[in-house]
Automatic annotation (TrEMBL):
UniProt-listed InterPro entries: DM10_dom, EF-hand-dom_pair, EFHC1/EFHC2/EFHB
Name of the protein described by the UniProt record: EF-hand domain-containing protein 1 isoform X2
Entry superkingdom: Eukaryota
Gene3D superfamilies (alphabetical): 2.30.29.170, EF-hand
Classification lineage: Eukaryota, Metazoa, Chordata, Craniata, Vertebrata
Gene from which the chain derives: EFHC1
Start and end residues of each DM10 domain: 93-198, 239-359, 416-520
Keyword set, alphabetical order: Cell projection, Cilium, Cytoplasm, Cytoskeleton, Flagellum, Repeat
Location(s) in or outside the cell: Cytoplasm, Cytoskeleton, Flagellum axoneme
Pfam assignment, any one: DM10_dom
Originating organism: Erinaceus europaeus (Western European hedgehog)
Chief site of localization: cytoplasm
SMART domains from the UniProt entry: DM10 (SM00676)
């Protein structure tokens, strides 16, 4: 082991040396566990594993102490006097442990009881470890009781062991001569003795009771004090007075269930109830007049009368705790009779007057329980799968044999053979797609669009039909209510998205201009202006500075007209100062040009709508070369 490099150095006051090679700085444990108990122990090493100089003996001192006899220092040890011998029959004389237990005995030859519970006392005599079992005498039990097992040592198993007080506890079973006793409790002396000997007692239990003995304790007959109610007076007072209630029984929750009407009659003279059926013509039911004959109706039965054969025997006052009375029939509440729940929704005028005078309930409601027509089910179409037109797919959900959707015949006759054609370019980041041109054909008779790509020699792209005749849904349009492209969506600079591909309209033919002028209400002023200016430039004399876009920039008239249009559309948006400062900060050379990437970053930071068709056209006209944009003309479009 390497030696300590600072060992032996002088340790002067206010001078100390730290061991730079030490890596462990933990302290030794001063607590430990032995046999499950926490004990304190003296540490032998200090912080970092260094041995403590305190209380440390050398090997010579340890050998001297090991060989030193304590008798030379303290003298010969004195023997303690022997403990006084006390025999067990004297120490535990008249000390008995008492346990309460019971055992179950089968009764095979009796119809009144199948088993009986016999309670016993188990005594354990500490002086000789003997036991006895005593059964308290029960009066008129007819069973020989008293001492069941006389005092003796009871065998525990077949090996020859006997029961000891350590084997007894509450809540356990012990078997003595083939009988199993369940110990439930013990007396106070037994509890203190067992706890003093380190035995943990189980919680006490309740003593089991013999069911036949408890049955015999009940009185043989129950006498009911006769009522002093005068039934004859009730008969004479309420003769021919009947309460009539209109009720329904709603059984629609069960299979083949229905809602049926009933009339409940309550006879005040003897408190009897009658339920009559209400039949309608051609209801398909047998014309039985009564659902339940006139009788007294029990409301609450006694506990032992739940299995009373009511269909054979009449119920008497001994089986019923409470009968139905007139106060149990209230309009607007339910009443359960013979397992059926009736809802009372109305009553006759006599019943209303009776409840007002007898119970003080006035203005009983009349509830409308007529069947209401269910709301019409809204027919929902399944989600669109992307094949064909939505109108054609929806016909499969309307009829079993689908038919072609109805078309506007007048529109087809007026616009037959009328086609609007546009020249478009594909907006794609792929360099090969920049020079591709497409011809859009919009058929006014059916609102369908077809796309044709003129073939170009040595381009590597096969031209021809790009898209057949079909209706094109606008982006962000719902599937349930699709919105298709219309002629008003096509103008120079517009972006048309067709099944995920974006096209920019570059040019149109002269027929489109005539159609737009004749249907000017369908188009926006900007769309008409873009088409008109395109044809004006074509008809004006040829001039490089006005009719063509050169390397320096676009035509002056076209640029000024577009700037004027954008100023009118974005009036009220103060962008000018912020845009000028942003572009001038990036234009270090003051050339008036910035690259495209930085240009779009500035527009994005200032929230300028670069996706607008007019602004796209302005950006295209301000672009010089492939990646440079003249921002002076762009800023002028947002000035006021």
């Amino acid at each position: 082991m390497a030696s300590n490099p600072v060992h032996g150095l002088p340790f002067l006051p206010s001078t100390s040396f730290n061991d730079s090679t030490k890596t462990a700085f933990h302290r030794s444990q001063t607590l430990g566990y032995r046999n499950g108990y926490a004990i304190a122990r003296r540490p032998t090493v200090g912080i970092g594993g260094e041995r403590l100089p305190v209380n440390q003996l050398s090997q010579a001192d340890l050998d001297e102490l090991a060989n030193k006899a304590p008798a030379l220092t303290y003298g010969e040890p004195k023997q303690a006097p022997p403990a006084q011998f006390i025999p067990a029959h004297v120490a535990f004389d008249k000390k008995v442990l008492k346990f309460d237990a019971y055992f179950q005995e089968d009764v095979p030859m009796s119809t009144e009881e199948h088993y009986r519970i016999r309670q016993v006392h188990i005594y354990y005599y500490l002086e000789d470890d003997s036991m006895s079992v005593m059964e308290p005498i029960v009066e008129n039990s007819g069973i020989p009781q008293g001492k069941l097992i006389k005092r003796q040592r009871l065998p525990k198993n077949d090996v020859g062991n006997h029961y000891h007080w350590k084997d007894l506890n509450r809540g356990i079973n012990i078997t003595i001569y083939g009988k199993t006793f369940h110990i439930v409790d013990c007396d106070h002396f037994t509890q203190e003795f067992l706890e003093s000997q380190g035995i943990e007692l189980n919680p006490p239990e309740k003593m089991a009771l013999d069911p036949y003995t408890e049955l015999r304790k009940q009185p043989l007959r129950k006498y009911v004090t006769p009522s002093d109610f005068d039934q004859l007076k009730q008969f004479l007072t309420f003769d021919k007075q009947v309460l009539r209630f209109y009720a329904i029984w709603d059984d629609t929750d069960s299979m083949f269930g229905e809602c049926r009407n009933y009339i409940i009659h309550y006879y005040l003279m003897d408190d009897t109830v009658e339920i009559r059926e209400v039949h309608e013509r051609n209801n398909g039911r047998d014309p039985f007049p009564l659902l339940m004959n006139r009788q007294r109706m029990p409301k609450i039965l006694v506990e032992n009368a739940e299995t009373f054969p009511q269909c054979v025997l009449e119920i008497s006052d001994q089986e019923v705790l409470e009968w139905y009375t007139a106060k149990d029939f209230i309009v607007g509440k339910t009443v359960t009779i013979r397992g059926r729940t009736f809802f009372i929704y109305d009553c006759d005028p006599f019943t209303r007057q009776y409840y007002k005078e007898k119970f003080g309930i006035a203005d009983l409601p009349s509830i409308d329980v007529s069947k209401k027509e269910p709301p019409p089910v809204k027919q929902e179409l399944p989600p669109y799968n992307g094949y064909g037109l939505i109108e054609d797919s929806a016909q499969n959900c309307f009829v079993l044999i689908p038919k072609a959707p109805k078309s506007d015949v007048i529109k087809m006759l007026l616009n037959d053979n009328k086609v609007l054609r546009y020249l478009a370019a594909l907006e794609s980041p792929i360099p090969e797609d920049k020079d591709r041109r497409f011809v859009f054909s919009y058929f006014l008779a059916t609102d369908m669009i077809s796309i044709f790509e003129p073939p170009v020699r040595n381009s590597g792209i096969i031209g021809g039909k790009y898209l057949g005749r079909t209706k094109v849904v606008k982006p962000n349009s719902s599937v349930d209510y699709p919105v298709y492209y219309s002629p008003s969506d096509f103008f120079i600079g517009a972006v048309i998205e067709v099944f995920g591909h974006r096209f920019i309209i570059l040019d149109t033919d002269e027929y489109v201009l005539k159609y737009m002028e004749s249907n000017a209400a369908q188009y926006s002023p900007e769309a008409l202006l873009s088409i008109q200016k395109r044809f004006q430039r074509q008809e004006s004399p040829a001039s490089d500075s006005e009719n063509k876009r050169t390397e320096e920039g676009p035509g002056v008239q076209e640029l000024e007209a577009l700037i004027d249009t954008i100023q009118k559309q974005f009036k009220g948006h103060p962008y000018k100062d912020n845009i000028c400062e942003a572009f001038q900060d990036q234009d270090k050379e003051a050339s008036g040009f910035v690259d495209k990437e930085m240009f779009f970053k500035i527009c994005d930071s200032l929230s300028i709508p670069v996706d607008d068709s007019l602004i796209k056209e302005l950006i295209r006209m301000c672009t010089h070369g492939e990646d440079r944009i003249n921002y002076f003309n762009f800023v002028r479009a947002f000035s006021h």
